[in-house]
Specification:
Elements lengths: L3 E14 L13 E11 L4 E7 L11 H16 L3 E2 L5 H4 L7 H18 L4 H6 L11 E3 L2 E3 L5 H14 L3 E5 L6 H10 L4 E5 L9 H5 L9 E2 L8 H6 L7 E3 L6 H10 L4 E4 L7 H14 L3 E3 L6 H11 L13 H4 L5 E2 L9 E3 L9 E2 L1 H14 L8
Parallel strand pairs: 6-7, 7-8, 8-9, 9-10, 10-11, 11-12
Antiparallel strand pairs: 1-2, 1-4, 2-3, 5-14, 13-15
Helix pairs in contact: 1-3
The protein binds 2-succinylbenzoate and magnesium ion (MG).
2-succinylbenzoate (OSB) binds next to loops.
Length: 386
């Protein structure tokens, strides 16, 4: 494999209007925000990565601005000037920086794209080259759609109908106390046979065990992250009381966490967000853990732009990702996105891998610049970033 020397890394903070807001148990943000990472190698070859974060510490503790500080002032200096044979060398370079997983993941992702391109490989094939034989990617990934909390049940049902009409074969709904049982009942009455799952984003405690148990009657594919965002143990106390499999999201920030969760029986399914666990190197380790334990696995999303989504799609095409991933068509998120061509939903609720090397989609410089000025215009914390 060809190695690359990192010449320069540029950061672009972007804000994009969302086609549809995603209201969760912790609220909704008006724009999709992210740091788009541009890693430049010798000869001007460019790799792209996405640090997918919100402006408020809500889903996770990092924000676009904390990640900017950590990325610019602590991580980039470790990378620039280094010659890398594989992106899996990146975590060791960052080992004196604790936590800040999204920040690390965005940079690592740009290096994955850069090195895949230097080697003339699609990112999915390049991931597979870092796995044991037998892990060649499929040509498309199985996907679903995540729908936020709506103002009324009617609006929620109408939106589900719209997504089913578009061809989505798995529906994920956000829940919160008071927007759960009645919602699940109404959805099941109208759509008895759809693949349905719920995501609580940590809105419950063990005191709600009876309420969560009542959801068993709705034949859910899984319930995502019912308890605290930093808990593993209490999920292991809840799971034996539920028929519905618990899927962990927020609580699993590393392969180590997932090993502990498996040992405790804290969940039966994993939502793997490469950005949450610090990047694709850690994700490949978690992938192999799931493979060895035959644990159902899917790839989660953070409303990524085309840059982050293309990389997640490449990962979701790996064969041990066996449940539909939270990667929807471009039209569910942005009009337009900052990359071309758009991702389209294909028959069987799938999205095809793009053919080009690396992430396989092209960043659009003008739209990137426009999204950067939108960030500057709407960012309430502008003085922190000049
Ligand atoms: O909990 O899975 C989540 C988006 C932002 C933050 C947290 C979550 C989500 C989603 C969106 O559910 C999934 C997607 O990107 O389509
Ligand atoms: Mg989730």
């Amino acid at each position: 494999m060809k190695s690359v020397t990192i010449k320069e890394i540029k950061l672009h903070i972007v804000a994009l209007p969302l086609v549809e807001l995603l209201k969760t148990s912790f609220g909704a943000e008006p724009f999709k925000t992210a740091i788009i990472v541009e890693a430049i190698g010798e000869g001007g070859l460019t790799g792209w990565g996405e640090t997918a974060l919100k402006t408020k510490p809500s889903y996770g503790a990092e924000t676009v601005l904390t990640a900017l500080h950590v990325t610019r002032d602590f991580l980039i200096p470790e990378l620039v000037g280094q010659t890398l044979r594989s992106p899996t060398e990146v975590p060791a370079m960052f080992k004196t920086v604790r936590g800040n997983h999204h920040a690390r993941a965005g940079l690592e992702a740009a290096i994955w794209d850069l090195l895949a391109k230097a080697n003339g490989m699609r990112l999915a094939d390049y991931f597979a080259a870092h796995l044991p034989a037998g892990n060649a990617p499929r040509e498309s990934a199985q996907v679903g759609v995540s729908i936020g909390i709506q103002d009324t049940l009617d609006a929620q049902l109408a939106l589900i109908q719209k997504r089913l009409d578009e061809g989505y074969g798995r529906i994920k709904l956000k829940i919160a106390p008071g927007w759960d049982l009645e919602l699940a009942r109404a959805v099941r009455d109208r759509f008895p046979d759809i693949l349905l799952m719920l995501d609580a984003n940590s809105a419950y405690t063990l005191n709600d065990a009876e309420r969560l148990k009542a959801l068993d009657q709705f034949d859910l594919l899984m319930i995502e992250q019912p308890l605290a965002y930093d808990d593993i143990y209490e999920h292991s106390q809840l799971q034996p009381h539920l028929k519905t499999p618990i899927c962990l999201d927020e609580s699993i920030t590393s392969a180590h966490d997932w090993r502990i969760a498996l040992r405790l029986g804290a969940g039966r399914i994993l939502n793997l967000k490469p950005t949450r666990v610090g990047g694709y190197t850690e994700s490949l380790e978690i992938y192999q853990l799931c493979q060895q334990n035959a644990t159902p696995l899917w790839i989660g999303g953070m409303l990524e732009t085309g840059i982050g989504r293309a990389a997640n799609l490449a990962f979701a095409a790996l064969p041990a990702v066996d449940l539909p991933s939270d990667i929807s068509a471009t039209s569910r998120y942005f009009d337009p996105d900052i990359t071309e061509p758009p991702f389209e939903l294909a028959p069987g609720s799938t999205i095809r891998l793009p053919e080009g090397p690396g992430i396989g989609v092209e960043a659009q410089r003008e739209r990137l610049a426009e999204a950067e000025s939108r960030w500057r215009e709407h960012n309430p914390f502008a003085p922190l970033w000049s």
